[in-house]
Amino acid sequence: MAAETRSPAATRRTFAIISHPDAGKTTLTEKLLLFGGAIQMAGHVRARGQNRRTRSDWLEIERARGISVSSSVMTFERDGITFNLLDTPGHADFSEDTYRTLSAVDAAVMVIDAAKGIESQTRKLFEVCRLRDIPIVTFINKIDREGQDPLALLDEISSGLALDLTLWTWPIGMGVDFRGLYDIRGKRLMMPREVRTDPCGRSVEVKEPGEVIEIPEVESRIAGPALEEMALCLEDLPKFDRASFLEGHLSPVIFGSALRDFGVGELLDFLAQHGPGALPRAANVRTVEPDEPAVSGFVFKVQSNMDRNHRDRVAFVRLCSGRFRAGMKLYHVREKRPVAINAPMFFFAQQRETADEAYPGDIIGIPNHGLLRVGDTLTEGEAFHFEGIPNFAPEVLRRVIFSDSLRAKQLHKALSDMAEEGVAQIFRPVNGAWPILGAVGTLQLEVLASRLDQEYGLPIKLENAPYEMARWVKSEKPEELKRFVEANRSNIAEDKDEALTFLAKNAWTLNRTMEEWPDIRFLAVRERN
Ligand code: GDP
């Protein structure tokens, strides 16, 4: 079906790239934008990051560490398809942010370094995708460098992740022997642009990527065995089956080199042809279909102070149904009231632009002053909320120390802002002690402390908390829960949504408490809302 005759939701490709740091996510992102026509030259993503940092000077720590902390959204169009690439931070400490971003995509590209294979962060993120049955395309990067044997890599991925693979492209040699990339469906060999020299040092004819060529005699030493191996592999591996791909069971494998432009066009073509459009989304009362006429969406990320002069806060909303138009009023389900959506933004690769219209799968940025929190649902009046945006029990807990008691109120407000934004979690002990901050990784807390100082002028210190574990507590028996809270008052806190939390000294005390209180549920994951 031609793209124009499909519904707008069917022409959206909303995806994220998951990878271990250094596998090549930034490079691939740049090249996708380049191939998609969104940017003119490579190096732009990084350069853009620099500009943003110097312009608004926010997230001092990001600059100091040279890492990317904040996610962004990049939109580009190619052949009638709108690609929305949601960037996820690569650092392991920011996995919470990444998890939330993955709740807003319909597909993921898993980038694997051909030399390193599956790494810890790849596995973690893959598991999140699997939990949500997100379809995954596997991009094995850096084939222009020495890597593991392709067969060994495929074996590692399929057995290590229990994932069926199907071949899309195949490398002809790797590292110094790299001669090009074979496109299996197109039956063509793509070769490096530069003039190559044969093993005897003679120069060989220049070929453009994409040009169909006969494999030269001189290359048969490399090409022959590579193609034989490919043939064996094709016999062994399952054929592509779209249904199986969409269910998240079968992943097409694209060998490539983001740096040298191999496999990038194939990846975009694959997503355009076979990738899912905007998918239905589960809400508490029913499943919401993308082609429903009424607008609905949910906030998966909040970012504050993107522009320091305006002290703004932007909620990133993934649209799930309907046609969103600028100037609309939407129903804020948690607040139980309609809200005007002022100056909604698209996040194009180059700048923020005012959105006139947006469709399921699209992301819009809504400036607000704290009204919208991560997990909030917006509809045209129906009172349902989308599910699947979790809070994870923190793995690091720190107590806030702040000497300026006159500004304590200001600090509490700033901490609430940060908690709502999802920078870290805040637990307020019911006995009135200083708040405890929780995060999945320590870097998250460093970011928080740095931002409190930079943006609010509130220098705090963090010291080890007397707790190592936090669990949300619930019970079907309200009386029992009350008894539990009374008996453990010094270990009970409330999170930003006033959900009761048990703070345990360590795993051993937690286990003992769980045994003592069989009617209390101790939750490591809490769905927002
Ligand atoms: P990220 O941490 O996953 O975002 O990785 P980057 O995109 O920053 O890449 C990490 C390093 O690998 C950089 O030095 C890149 O230039 C290099 N790199 C990325 N892709 C390729 C590739 O296809 N081939 C080679 N040789 N190097 C690459």
UniProtKB/TrEMBL annotation:
GTP binds at residues 19-26, 87-91. GO terms for biological process: regulation of translational termination. Pfam families: EF-G_D2, GTP_EFTU, RF3_C. One of its GO terms (molecular function) is GTPase activity. Residues 10-281 form the Tr-type G domain. It is found in: Cytoplasm. One of its GO terms (cellular component) is cytosol. Its main location: cytoplasm. InterPro entries: EF-G-like_DII, EFG_III/V, G_TR_CS, P-loop_NTPase, PrfC, RF3_C, RF3_dom_3_sf, Small_GTP-bd. Keywords: Cytoplasm, GTP-binding, Nucleotide-binding, Protein biosynthesis. The keyword Cytoplasm applies. Belongs to the TRAFAC class translation factor GTPase superfamily. Classic translation factor GTPase family. PrfC subfamily. Increases the formation of ribosomal termination complexes and stimulates activities of RF-1 and RF-2. It binds guanine nucleotides and has strong preference for UGA stop codons. It may interact directly with the ribosome. The stimulation of RF-1 and RF-2 is significantly reduced by GTP and GDP, but not by GMP. This is Peptide chain release factor 3. The gene is prfC.
